[in-house]
Amino acid sequence: MRKTLPAATPYISRIDTFEANFDGLVGPTHNYAGLSQGNIASQSNAQAISRPRRAALQGLAKMRAVAGLGFVQGFLPPQERPALWTLRAAGLSGSDEQVLAAAARDHPLLLARACSASAMWTANAATIAPAQDTDDGRLHAVVANLRAMPHRSIEPPQTLRTLRALFHDSSRFEVHAALDPSGAFGDEGAANHTRLATAGAQGIHLFVHGAAATGGPAPAKHPARQTLEASREVAHLLRVPASHCVHAQQSPAVIDAGVFHNDVICVGTGGTLLHHEDAFLDGAATIDALHRAVGDGFHPLVVRRDEISVADAVSTYLFNSQLLQAPDGHQILVCPIEVREHPRACAVVDRILRDPFSPVKTAVYLNVRESMRNGGGPACLRLRVPLDEVGRAALHPGFLLSPERIAWLHGWIERHYPEELRPADLCDPTLLRRSRDALDELTRWMGVGAIYTFQGATPP
Ligand code: SUG
User: Fold this and answer.
1) Global pTM?
2) Which atom of ligand 1 is nearest to the CA of 32?
3) 19 included as an active-site residue
């Protein structure tokens, strides 16, 4: 069934354990700088005019829609940008205005990296294992190091501060710093991780890497961002038993076709794994291993290449839809509207909804086009956090949303965000000042104290 969105309902889940989603609030410097090699949308929209206000409102509308479907919804605040400390570390000095002017004149690429609002894609913030899966009964999160892309590698210290503020109760949560990016550890967070679980059972964790640092099959054109060594270390830090982990390699050919994260070609929740038949290097072995680990409740939904090509999957972001499981077990696919506009992608969704054995019963289409044009769909924009009511009550409430709080954020975005940004606007000191004022007001409203460098937060 296609659904129009229902009016907002109370955001309380009625089941014992549920998945809360923390979406990245798009920052005021959202722009198109073509910074991500291997990400086709980022490359092809380089230097286009961006619309930060529209981007943030689209993201907020998605949060409202998912909350309105009855799911617990939270947000992670934007990071401080421009990241002036990265420009100073590169040797630029003087006042903030002078640093920005020198960067624009002599180091435009460094300036673009320092201005990226890429922290909006919180699927790359961290990897999470819920309390019921870990050997010490606490939720563990490992911040992603994002070392593959220079503009993203500056995110982890702030992500650590932000997640430690959210998960502030150390008797229930532990947030680990990112893996050392030197050597074998390239980690992209939850974008390369899927937790599958059937009712009441401990979760099975699927970790997907692009290549092993020690060699073996690897893409020829584009970087393999996630390494096997990083996935193994993350699994270890999460304190998930090895018997509950499955490691699989992405097909190098799909990385070269633009699948820079596994969540561009695969999404799962509950017992369901929706994926393209070309997603994995050895698809049959991966599905077999998951079947053994998850048991009879495992439900692979395979999309054949004669239904949709990898290229069309990448351009529509069909598999970057958000898959949500309602308390009664039925699942909802939250797709980008690009899927509805593409006859083959839309036919895949309709086929899945018609399949009497498919747990996916509903599709919802949302417009997050400003993010899509940088290669971020609905699933990239959210970090999943499986919780029970006790865990939820232990979260910092400033990160959680209600209809009133969404309305406040709406007004805050309208007050502070620029309508449009061109590449030449990034060095404007007014953008820096407006962004800091906005974040200052936001964190005061959230009640989280000083978490940003400009507020005097000490780096962890
Ligand atoms: O890392 N784009 C992001 C998109 C991340 C999508 N996330 C997931 N698939 N989970 C990236 O490539 C583009 C920024 C620019 O070019 O201006 C960018 O960083």
Assistant:
1) 0.96
2) 17
3) no
